[in-house]
Specification:
Number of strands: 2
Number of domains: 1
Order of helices and strands: HHHHHHHHHHHHHEEHHH
Pfam families: HTH_67
Protein name: SalK
InterPro entries: HTH_67 (IPR054058)
Largest sheet: 2 strands, antiparallel
Oligomer: single chain
CATH superfamily: Winged helix-like DNA-binding domain superfamily/Winged helix DNA-binding domain
CATH topology: Arc Repressor Mutant, subunit A
Radius of gyration: 19 Å
Structural class: mainly alpha
Shape: globular
Strand content: under 5%
Number of helices: 16
Length: about 300
């Protein structure tokens, strides 16, 4: 693929990821999950995203998610399934998405234009989904099976489904790329944090369940390798910052990831992919305006999660 085509796929993929992942920080979504006895936030989100896999144990979730602490997930699974079954949570996530999308879009005066943008993006990306080979992509395949069996009620719910499958497909490819380059999950998370364009350090550590000892060990390892430097934030907490070598490593992984999705996107021409840049931008602006990515969690609006 030429560089502009690759960059446009990255841009659209990043925005699809944001459209999917904004729900993880929503109080509205948390209240929907709480109806089923789950704590809003990490517990509910783990249940909703894992549900398409069925009643799996912590090992399956840890392997699929890649950058979560296995020890932490072992405290969550199978306990979560004793509270709410996977089947319950598949439907609960659809209910949560419906409530979240209604909250975001229903009262907006420009809803007609935004509906048109959501329809345009979903319609254009659906052939990409149809062209996907899910071999070796366990989370993406399970998610696609669950989502394609569901009938969305609005253009925004439809786009969320499209975005979610595309996100998990690229995400599984990203995991394979990290494995290929020998970057462990916690290191990948630390490097992402160190860019200053994703999770804040304490938020990343907490949501992924790493202990202070594990976090500091990874930080020290990456600093010794010359991939990050470590300073302090305004409160005196460690603040990793990525180096040129760290950026080079991340770009190497991203280029491998680009290769894992190239065949799926080959169904669209360069012009068709470029045509998605503008409408996807309009939709992401709504997320930014709504505060969907809270400043307490992100250094700036999220673009990617492993």
């Amino acid at each position: 693929m030429n560089s502009q085509r690759t960059q446009n796929i990255r841009t659209v993929s990043s925005r699809l990821n944001s459209f999917h992942s904004a729900m993880y920080f929503s109080e509205t979504v948390g209240r929907e999950y709480a109806k089923h006895g789950l704590e809003p936030g990490v517990e509910g989100n783990l249940a909703g995203r894992s549900a398409p896999l069925g009643r799996v144990n912590a090992g399956v979730v840890s392997a699929a998610y890649y950058n979560y602490s296995h020890a932490f997930l072992s405290t969550q699974f199978p306990k979560i399934w004793d509270t709410a079954s996977p089947e319950t949570m598949v439907q609960a996530r659809f209910d949560a998405v419906a409530a979240f999308m209604a909250e975001l879009f229903d009262s907006r005066e420009d809803i007609a234009l935004l509906t048109e943008a959501a329809t345009q993006v979903a319609t254009a990306v659906e052939p990409v989904l149809a062209n996907m080979d899910f071999s070796g992509r366990v989370l993406a395949q399970a998610t696609a099976d669950a989502l394609t069996a569901h009938k969305p009620n609005t253009a925004f719910e439809r786009l969320w489904g499209v975005a979610t499958i595309a996100r998990e497909f690229r995400g599984d490819g990203h995991v394979a790329s990290l494995v290929t380059t020998g970057v462990p999950g916690i290191d990948a998370l630390m490097l992402d944090v160190a860019t200053g364009a994703s999770f804040k350090p304490r938020a990343a550590q907490k949501t992924r369940g790493y202990t202070d000892e594990e976090w500091k060990a990874a930080q020290s390892r990456l600093a010794e390798a010359g991939l990050i430097t470590v300073g302090e934030d305004e409160r005196g907490f460690d603040l990793p910052a990525i180096t040129d070598a760290g950026r080079d490593l991340k770009e190497q992984v991203e280029q491998l990831t680009d290769g894992t999705v190239a065949a799926a996107w080959s169904v669209l021409s360069d012009e068709e992919i470029e045509a998605l840049v503008s409408p996807s931008r309009s939709l992401i602006k709504v997320l930014a305006q709504s505060g969907a990515f809270p400043a307490s969690v992100f250094a700036q609006p999220a673009k990617k999660t492993s």
